[in-house]
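Hey, resending since the last one bounced:
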Amino acid sequence: MVEKFNELVNFNNIGMRKRNYYKKREFIPDYQYGRIDVSRFISYLMKGGKKTTAEKILFKTFDLIKNQTKTDPIKVFEKALENASPLQEVVSRRIGGANYQIPRDIRPERKFFLVCHWIINAAKTKKGKPMAEKLAEELIAASKNEGAAIKKKQDTHRMAEANRAFASFLRTR
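The structure tokens again:
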């Protein structure tokens, strides 16, 4: 009886699945502009799985940017991401009973993640306007090297510069 059960279930193939950390995720471009960075920004903007709402907000933002600046909104978007992208960040390490903030360079994927979140959070903190307008203002400001996302980048760089003496503590894996 037990042997038949083992044959039916085939316990040899049951096991924990291991996640493949080395495989990069492939992203699908958005339908309007055909760009992967816009698609990823929409994903970060999305709340509660409401992707169409996030798409509407971002595309309305691009329309507002086009009307206000009379330039291509994708160029403004790219410039804003480029200007607000950090080069270094600090990571906390415990060494000899003390915690040190150690500066390190940032991978391109993390750069994009940070800049998107900084821009979105800066837009969210503003009050009294629809999200599309707040996001448009923040993207335009970031493309001109102004705004809260740029301030966040400068604070991060200032922190990394202040702790540059601890850079030798950084372990390489």
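The chain has a mean pLDDT of 87.

Sorry for the duplicate.
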